Amino acid sequence: MRPQSSQQSDRAPEPSPALFFETVNAYQRTAALKAAIELDLFTAIGEKNETVQELARRCDASERGLRILCDYLTIIGFLTKEGDHYALTGDSSLFLDRRSSAYLGSSIEFLLSPTHVEAFGDLKEVVRKGGTLMPDGGALAPEHPMWVRFAQVMAPMMALPARLLANIVDERATDKLRVLDIAAGHGMFGIALAERNPRAKITALDWPNVLEVARQNAREAKIEDRFQTIAGSAFEVDYGDGYDLVLLANFLHHFDMPACETILRRVHAALAEDGRVALVEFIPDEDRINPPIAASFSLMMLGTTPNGDAYTLSQFDEMFQRTGFAEVELRAMPPTFFRALVARKR
Ligand SMILES: C[S@@+](CC[C@H](N)C(=O)[O-])C[C@H]1O[C@@H](n2cnc3c(N)ncnc32)[C@H](O)[C@@H]1O
């Protein structure tokens, strides 16, 4: 007879209601993180206010409330606790202490905006319909104000992916580079290229209200003399031609495959003969369930767009083939959850 412990490990785990309980209450997890960001709790702990009493003073909140919030944040992994002292984890220190240059706290103004949260208010009906219940195409309505907010508050989250992409597509950073950044938003992807390479010239395309934010970022990065804009829909405006590089960062996932191909055909025509297109996307594996963050992004598109999706590499390959591109290269972008796809015109 085998020992008890090995018999146990061969068996399927005992059924448990834990996942149900945790998932049903997951809105509290969101609420706890939001409250901590709004109370500036992570900054307060980073400043060495480590006990409930110190934090209550610094955050202008009750001791009872802070004790329960800090314990909860410790349980879910945002803090550590030693005796009655709390401390930041490495991630919290980098991303949630307001004094960090990689601070992500302001992104909740987009990610938890009423527009976004309400899009998931009746997911059953969204699933029945197969697309967003938001009016006028949801996030795709022309000049939707949510994109101005996105451009204002998501730039810090995109600064690292933007630098990583610049390394991938312009390693030497010395060659002449005419870049079209489609759906530029905050403009960080084009700006990162221009900051590295003094011979890079950027044309950012987006809705006019969003481009105001991108122009401001270009001014702050001191590259405004190499930064132009094209205002309007990427399906309608004239892109111009002769670009060495076209960027499509976090744009194609909003559309169905035929619409993506319309954009890719327009991009193909706008590129110089040896030009390339670079996509930054959530790209799940072929099983569509891994890696979890990229694969879960399909649900975001279900709730907020009529037909958007997180496309797999084979789906992108198909789209590139049908629109005349060659030599598609997939690149990981660690430590971010994005992947880059670079395809040549010929
Ligand atoms: C998710 S953001 C991506 C911004 C940036 N490229 C990034 O990766 O962070 C999507 C952008 O697409 C823009 N957009 C949506 N529909 C568009 C259209 N038809 N033409 C041009 N831009 C559009 C939005 O204004 C927004 O800036």
TrEMBL record:
Gene3D superfamilies: hypothetical RNA methyltransferase (1.20.5.840), Vaccinia Virus protein VP39 (3.40.50.150), Winged helix-like DNA-binding domain superfamily/Winged helix DNA-binding domain (1.10.10.10)
GO molecular function, one term: protein dimerization activity
Residues of the O-methyltransferase C-terminal domain: 178-325
InterPro entries with a match to the protein in the record: COMT-like (IPR016461), COMT_C (IPR001077), COMT_dimerisation (IPR012967), SAM-dependent_MTases_sf (IPR029063), WH-like_DNA-bd_sf (IPR036388), WH_DNA-bd_sf (IPR036390)
Active site (UniProt): H253 (proton acceptor)
Ranges where the O-methyltransferase dimerisation domain occurs: 22-97
Methyltransferase among keywords: yes
Protein name in UniProt: Methylase involved in ubiquinone/menaquinone biosynthesis
Organism of origin: Pyrinomonas methylaliphatogenes
Lineage, broadest ranks: Bacteria, Pseudomonadati, Acidobacteriota, Blastocatellia, Blastocatellales
